Structures
1.
Amino acid sequence: MTLIILQTILKQWDKSELTDYHAEKRSYIPDQFCINSPPATFTGDQKCLIDHHRFGSFETDLIFSQYKSNTVRFSQFKVNLNGYEIESEGSTSQLVLNRWFKFRYLNRRRVFEKNLYFWLYEEITLNAILLNQLDPSVFLHSSPYQTIDVPGLNQNENAK
C-alpha cells in the first residue's frame, strides 16, 4: 500500500521576537526530523501519516482537517491523498515515489490569546514523500528532491 508521509514543523513568534538574536535562535531549530509514531498519527483511512512538530509558546496551532477521505487541509496546504498532489497558493506539486519535497511558507496572522489581539508570525515547513513502506528516518537520509518557497511573507523583511 502506498503511503503519504507529511511532516510539519511550525515555528511561531510575536513582535517581541523579530530581532536578529531571535531569528538566529529559530534558525537552529531543525526543519526535518525522524518520524516517531506515536505521536505521529494516521488519517482515518490509513493513507497518510502526519508527523507534527511545534516550536513557540503560543496556544495557537495548525488545524488539520480531512474531507471526503481523499483530502487533508492545513494552513495554505491541500493534500490530495488519491492523486498524490500537494496544492498551495494555486500551485500543484505531484509527489514522486521515494523522493521527498520540502515546502516553506511564512505567515502572519492576527490572533486573540489571553485577552489580547496580536500578530503571530509563523514559519511552516512541510516535508512530504510518497512511500511503499514506512521509513522513520526518510527525511534524514537525503536532501529534498525539490524545495518550494510558497508565496506569502517569504519576501517580507519583517518576518526574520
Note: Helices lie at 20-27, 138-141.
2.
Amino acid sequence: MNLNKFPPVLLDDAYLYCNLAETEQLDAGLISNLFSTEDVSTLPIFSAKERPVFRLFDLSILEILRTKGLDKHPVILSHLLDLEEGDIPEWHGGIAIEVANKSGIIKANHFKCDLLIGRSFEVPGPSRECSALVLFNLLSEHASHPFYLHGRTGYELFQSYLASGVSGVVLSPDQFHEEPGGEVFRFPLAGGASLRLLVKGGAPEAIDIRSRCLQDSQAFLRTSHSDGLWSNAKEPLQSSKLLPHLKQYLQLARLSPRDFASNTCFAPGNPAAKSFHCELPIIQGAMANISISPPFAEEVFRAGALPCMALAGLGPQQAEQLLSDTTQLGIPYGAGIVSVSESDEALEQIVNTLEKHRPELVVLAAPQLDHVQRLLKTDLNLAVHAPNAAMLRVLFDMGVRTFIIEGEEAGGHVSRLGSLSAWQEVLSEIRDQRIEKQVHLILAGGIASHFATELISKLLNFYELDEGLKVSLQMGSAYMATSEALELTPLPESYQQLLFELDETVVT
C-alpha cells in the first residue's frame, strides 16, 4: 500500500469535470465523478502536474481508463459499488475504497487497496446513515487500511483528525458557504443507501424529485449531480476566492503534528464534573420510557455520571412520584422535559414539581422560547438544547448558560446537523464571542468510544478552549447497552439486541 499516491487533501467539487489549472502547483487532488463508461470520453487531457482523482460508480470504467493510459491516476470506488473478491485489479495510480458504514469497512478490509475514505451523511450526495463522528469511531477501531474522512471539516477538526491517526480529508466547497441554499432531503437508492440533495423548492419540489428517483435511481444519480443538486457552491474550491482556504488546509497537512497528545478534557473531578457533583463530566441522557427507574439512576451515579430522569410522556402524578422516589436516594440527578410536547398548563405543573424536588439539572429539549423564559424565572439549573450557533446566540442573550449541543446521531428531538458539524459551529461562536468562561457545554450524539472522547479533547485544544470552557458529555445509547438497563428499566431485550446487531440507525 502506498498512501503517497493520494494527496492529503482531496477536493470533491460536485462538478463533473473542473479546470485543474489553479491546482497545478498545489498538493491537492481534484475528484471527478465517473458514472458510466461514456463519461471517460469527455475527460480532458491532463498535464503532467495535474492530480486528478476519479470516483467510479461503475467498475467497468477501470478497464476503459487503463486503455486510455489513465491508470497512473488514483481512483476511488464509490461505496455504492457491491465489490466482490477479484473485482479490484492492480492499479498503478492507487485505489481507495469509499465506505459509509461498519459493514462496508469490514468488507473493505479484505481487499488490497491503498486507502479507505469514510463518506458521511454531512455532505450532499449518496451516503448511508453514518456521520463523520460515527465513521471516525468505526474506522479507528476496525480499519485495516489508512483512512480519510469526508464531512464538514474545519481547520481545527482537520488538525484533530491528523493528531488522531486520520491520514487526510475530502473537502466539499459547501462548507465555505453560509447560505444553506435549500433544505436537505433523503431519496432512496438501491442497497439501503440514500441520496441527500439540497432542494431549494422545499417539500413540493422534493416530491417531484422523489418520483424521478424512484423511476430510475441509477440514472437519476448522475443527472442530480450534473444538475447541481449535490452542491450549493457558487465556485469550486480551486477558485481564487476559495484558494486561500485550500492553501491553509495544505499547510496544516504539512505542519500539523501527527503525534500530538492532548490532556483529556474529561478527567474525574474536573470543574464540569464538580458542577454536577459527580465523579465524571458525563450525563446519562434522558430517554423516554427508559430512564424512569430510580434504581437505574442510582447505578448510573455509582458509575460516576449524572443520571437524568425522563419526564416526557408522564402525567403530573407520575412525574411527581418519579422525582420524589429519586430524590429520596440522596444522589444528584437531572430531569428532562420535551418542551414542544408540553402545553403551558402542563409546563406549570412540571415547574412546580421541579421546584419542589430541585434536581441538579433540568434539561429542556426541543425548546419553545416562552418555556425557556418561564424556566429562567426560577432558580433551577437549566440546560437547553441548542442545535447550532444561531440558537446558542438567542438562548445566551435570554440568559441561558448551559447548553446541550446534540447532533443528528443522538436519539430523540435532535438537530439536522451531524455532531461534529454542530460542535464546530458552536465552538467557533464561543471563541469568537469570548464567552468560554461564562458557559457550560454538554456535547451529545455519537459519542460511543474512547476514540470520540480523545478526538473531542484534541478539538477543544486546537480551538484553544480546553482550559477555560467547561465541557461535559451526554450519552444515551451507551447506557441502553448495559446489563443494568435490562435489569432495572423497561428496556426490552429485543431492543437492546437490535442495538448490537444493526449497522446503522435512523431518526424517524
Note: The chain has 19 helices and 19 strands.
3.
Amino acid sequence: MKTKIILISFLLVTCSDISIENNAITEDNIEEKIKKFYFSKDDPVDENNEFANYIKNHKIKITNPVIISILKLMEGNKRLSSREYKEADEFYKEALEVVKKHKIGGLLLVHCYVSLGITERKDLKKSLALSYAALQELEKMEESERKNKEKMDLYYNIASRHFFDKNWTAAIEKSSKAIDFTEEKKIIYSGVKYLHNFIALSHQNLGDYDSAQQALKKAIEKTDPKDYVSLTYIHDCHAKLYEDIGNYKLAYQHIVLAKENQKFYQQNRINIINEIKNKELILKSEIANSRKKIIQQQKTVLYASILFLLFSLLFVTRLILLSNKIKKRNNKIFSLNGKLRHLVTNLEKTNTKLEKKNTEVSNLLDVNNRMLFSKVLKISTYNDTISMLTSEVSNLIKNNKSIEVNKLLHIEKSLLVLIEENALWKEFKLQFEKMHPDFFTKLKKIAPNLSVNDLKHCAYIVSKLKTKEVANLINVSTRSVETTRYRIKKKIGLKNNQNLFDFLHAI
C-alpha cells in the first residue's frame, strides 16, 4: 500500500509557490502579467489570490478567452493541491469549454486535457483518452524544451496508469517509450527510476525474471545514492523478485540493503531533528543572553531615572527661587504697565482726534472731487451746446449762399477750438493731480499701454464716481462705461477676482 501511495504521488502535478513580479499590478498590465506568470511555471497556482482579488476589487471585466481559461486552470490547480477533486474537475471542464469554443490550441488545450486526466483518474479509459488527446495536441507544436517536458510527463502518466491497472504489457511498452524519449532528447527526468520499477514489476508479474532484474539494476543506477526512500523501495522490489525466483540468499541481502537505506533515512531524519534541536538550543541561549541584556538595560534605566529625579529636585528648588525673583520683577512691571496704560489712553484720545481730522479732510476731498466733476459736467454741457451751434453754422454755410462764408468759417473755427478735447483734458488733469499727485505718472509706469480715454476713466473711478454718473458725464451708455473698465483691468493685468477701485486707490 505504501509503495502504491509513493508511485501515485508522482502522478499528481507538483504545485510551485507563486512568485509574482515585484512591480505592481495595474489594469493595463494585469492580462500580460497573468500570461507571463502562467507560462513561466509548470503548473501555476495563484495561492494568495493576488490576481483574482485585484480583478474583484477593481471590478475589471476580463473578456480575453485566453486569460479566462488561464484563471480557471489556476483555480483548478489550487483546488487539486487541496485535494478538492470534484471542484478542481469543474474548473478544468469550464476552462476546456472556453478553449474549445474559441478554438485556442497549444499548451492551454494540453493543460486542460492533462488536468482532467488527473481528476478523472478513477476512470482509466477516460483518463488515458485525455492523455492521448494531449499528446496529439503536443505533436502539432514546434519543438521546444517545454514541449519535451510536457510530453515526458504525459508518457510517465500513461505508463503509470497502465501499471496500476495491471496491464503489464502496456506498462512495459509505455515505460520503455518514455525512457527512450528521455535518452533521445537528453532530458533529465526524476521519474526515470520509477519507470524502470514499472518495467521490473511488470516483467516480474509476467514471469520474465531476467528482464525484471535488469530493469531493477537500471533503477538503482538512475537513483541518487542519498535518495534513501527510493532505494529502500527498489531493494524491497529486488527482495520480492529473488523470493519469487527462490534465491533467498539474494532476497535476504536486498532486505538488509532495504533496511540499511531505511536506517540511513531515519538517521538522516534524526540528524535533521538534532540540527533543529541544536538550533533551538542556540536560539534559547540567544534569548537568555537577550534577557540578560534587557535586565542590564532596565537597571541602567533605573539608575538613570534616580539621577533624573535628583536633578529634577534640584531644578525645582532652583525654579522656586527664580519664581520669587520673577514675582518681584512682575510687581515692578505691573507698576510700569499702569503708567503705560495711562500713556496709551492719552495716545488713543490723540489718535481719535486725528482720525476725526482725517475724516474731515477726506470729506473735503470728496467735496472737491464732486465740485471738480461738476465743473467737468458743465464743460461737457457747454461742449454739447457749442457742438450743436457748430453744426447749425455748418448747415447755414451749405444752404445759404448769401451769408458771408468767411465770417461763418471764422466762427466755426473759434467754436471748435473751444471744444478741443485735449485742452479740456489738460485742464481737468491739472485740477485732478492737485488732489492726487503723480497718480497718472505712476499709473503709466504700471501700464504704459493705457490710452487718454483709459486714464480719464481711472480718474473717475478714483474720484468714486458711479458708473451711471460717468455715463451721464461723458454722454455714453452705462454698458459702454463697464466695457471700458473691463478693458482697463485686462491692460493692467488684473485677475477677475481683483478689484479695480482697490488697485487704483492704492497708487
Note: The chain has a mean pLDDT of 81.
4.
Amino acid sequence: MIEFAARACAFFNGDFYWIQSQSTGLIAVPEPSMEPMFLAPDASDEAIGESISAALKASRMIAPAEFNKRWSAGEFSRLEAARENEAIDRFCYKNRKALRREMRLCWIIPIQIAVSASNTEIGEAVRKGFSLCQIGKK
C-alpha cells in the first residue's frame, strides 16, 4: 500500500503568493477541487499560514487507475494551464515566461511542520524560506 502525505505548494515572485493544494497519484498534481489562493506580497503571516493549512487539508490521494485516466485525458495539464492563465490575467503579466521569471517554489508536507505550529508560525517559516532563496538576486 502506498503511504499518503498531504501536500501543498507555495509560489512567490515578489508580486504575489500563489498557494495551491497538491494531490498525490503517481506524482503530485494540482488538486482540482480547490482553487489556488493568491495573496498580496504584504499578506500577514497568519493569512499565509491559514492558506497553507487549508491547502494541506484539501490534499488527497488519487487511486492509480483514476490518476492514469485523468492524466491520459490531459486533465492535469489543462488545469495547470488554466490556473497559470488566471494568474497572468489577474496580475497583468505578458505571458507565462514573465509570470515565472522570478518565481520561487516551496513544497510543503505536514512532516515539515510541527503539530503544534500556529498559522502565524507556518506563514513566518514560508516567508523566511522565500527570503533565503537566491533566484533573481544579484
Note: The mean pLDDT is 89.
